[in-house]
Amino acid sequence: MFNKKKGENMNKKEKEILKNLEETNSPMEFKLFMEENNPENFSWGFLKKFEQLNAQVFVNYELQNGRE
């Protein structure tokens, strides 16, 4: 599922990608990122954090739309 050569720890670029995705807080941005990138190119730590953020953004989106 992931590139064992990349290992567990995130590099600086991966941390920056997550920070940018978190700041946009957009489910569409997460979806586009998943469609445009191969998971094998990222560390296991990045993939775990990405999934957590993706779930949180989706929940936030659903809560916001449910209140309107």
- Write down how many β-strands occur, each being a DSSP E stretch of 2 or more residues: 0
Strand content: under 5%
Number of helices: 3
User: What is the CA-CA span between the terminal residues?
Assistant: 39 Å
What's the SSE pattern?
Answer: HHH
Radius of gyration: 13 Å
The share of residues in helices is 55-70%
Q: Specify the biggest β-sheet.
A: none
Give the quaternary arrangement of the chains: single chain
Low-confidence stretches: none
What is the approximate shape? elongated
Structural class: mainly alpha
The overall pLDDT average reads: 87
Please tell me about this protein's structure.
This protein is mainly α. It is built from three helices and no strands. Helix 1 packs parallel to helix 3. The protein is elongated, with a radius of gyration of 13 Å. It starts with 11 loop residues before the first helix and ends with a helix. The mean pLDDT is 87.
Summarize the model shown.
This protein is mostly helical. It has helices spanning 12-24, 27-36, 44-67. The mean pLDDT is 87.
